[in-house]
Every structure is written in C-alpha cells, then in structure tokens.
What we know:
By secondary structure, the protein is mainly α. Helices cover 49% and strands 0% of the residues. It contains 6 helices and no strands. The longest helix is centred in the last third of the chain and has 18 residues, at 78-95. The radius of gyration is 19 Å and the shape is elongated. The mean pLDDT is 79.
Amino acid sequence: MQLVGMSLLLILLSPGPGVTPMFMMSFFELPKGVPQKLDCFRSRFYWQNEQHKRKYRLVQWEIMCQPKDQGGLGIQNLEIQNKCLLSKWLFRLLNEEGMWQELLRNKYIKNKTLGSCEKKSTDSHF
C-alpha cells in the first residue's frame, strides 16, 4: 500500500465525531470485550486491501496504538480514551461550580469524601 494510502487510513482511524462513539464513551464505561472487538474492526480496516483478502499484520495493534514519539502510529487506545473521558466528568465535579455539580454533590456526596461514596441500586447511572 502506498504511503499516502496509509496516511489516509490513519486519519480515518483517528478520533472524530463519526469514527468512534466518543460522545457515548464520555458518559458510559464500555463493557468488557467491546474495546477489543472495536480494535479488531479497526485493525482489519487498516490492514485490509481492496480485494478483501486476509493480509498478514506486520505490526501488533498495541504497538500501533503507542504515541508516535514511542514508535507507534498514535492510534488512540479505546480503553484508555474511555477512562479519560469519564475522568473528565469527575474532575469537573470536584473542581468546577455549576448547577449539575451542586445537584450531584448535594444528592450523592453531601459531607463525605468522593472515595467514601458507595453506589446504591436506586442511584442514577450517571
């Protein structure tokens, strides 16, 4: 495959609004096995040729997902991306002021630390 073609594939695999479900990943933790299945499809998309024949993968997917300065191609690891997006909400809850932060603090945290909060069966998924 030509260098231009591989570069285009990297652009298509990079995160964007239509490529991966980033919005849903920012609200919900992906179930076990889903990131691996998505990575399987992404890997197949990258290595597949026009005739849809199976090709040998020349590099492990984990290496391709490493940052460019570490020898990878910079393709985002979906498990890490999911945890980072979820952590962003936690950071906003602890460090910003707003209506939703106040609501969650009053309902769930009250006078406790965040680490001592326990999930109840009646709590919202959010």
